Structure formats: structure tokens, C-alpha cells
Amino acid sequence: MPRDRGQHETANARKSGGQTPEAAPEPAEVIRRLHAMVREARAPLIDPTAGNVNDCRRRLDEVASALRKLLAGPPGIDPKHDVALAGPLASLRAEIGRVAILLDSAAAFHMGWMHMAACMVSGYTADGTPATPEPARRVSLEV
Q1: What are the angstrom distances between the C-alpha of 77 and each of 27, 64, 67, 85, 123?
Q2: What confidence score (pLDDT) does residue 118 get?
């Protein structure tokens, strides 16, 4: 009578000392997962709030860590020179480039608003250029 799959795995686990060997995921599958993670990190950048940018940074840190592990990989296997991985790696690189463009745009957007806010606070000079913001704290003493 054929056994249930779970029973078969349990029997094999008992034979091997209680440990079931887990195969490492294929590099192509890891790259596909990383690509999906980068795509998920990119989505909230359409609304570049500080929270969304920080969340994107956290996700990209996870991706960078996993990519370092993949590229370090087991000895004798070099994912950078594997022809089968060239396409998925190029796709991942392109997705990271799109995220970089959105992050640069978010930084420029916020820098522009900081400049505008400084102009609103400090006003303009006689020739129409934005005035240098005053230092936040100032002490004047007359003797």
C-alpha cells in the first residue's frame, strides 16, 4: 500500500538522523525573488513621502544582502558568468536602475521644497535672488 507523502518524508528523515536535507534554491529563482522584492520596493515611491523612502531603503538593504550572498555563492559556481543567468540579472539591474531614478527624483523634489521653504522664510534680496536663511539662534549684545 503506498504511503502518504508526509509519511514517506518522515520515514526518510528518521533514516537520516532526523534531518531532512534542504536543497539550496536555484540562482535563477533567487534572482526572480530579488526582482520581485525590488519591484515591491519601487511601488510606494510613486508617493515619495519620508516613510515610503525609508521603507524602500529597508527593502533594498534586504535585496543587497541576498544579492551579496548569491554572488558569493558556493565555490566553483559564479553567477556573474553563468549564461543562463544573464537575462534575469540584466532585468534585475534594470529594475534597480528604475528605483534609483525614482529615489533621485524624490531627493530632488524634497531639496526643491526645502529651498522654497527657505525662500519663504528668509525672503528675497533687492536684486530678486533668494536671501540666505538666518541662523536659527542668534544673540546680539551691545556694550
Answers
A1: 10, 19, 14, 12, 61
A2: 75
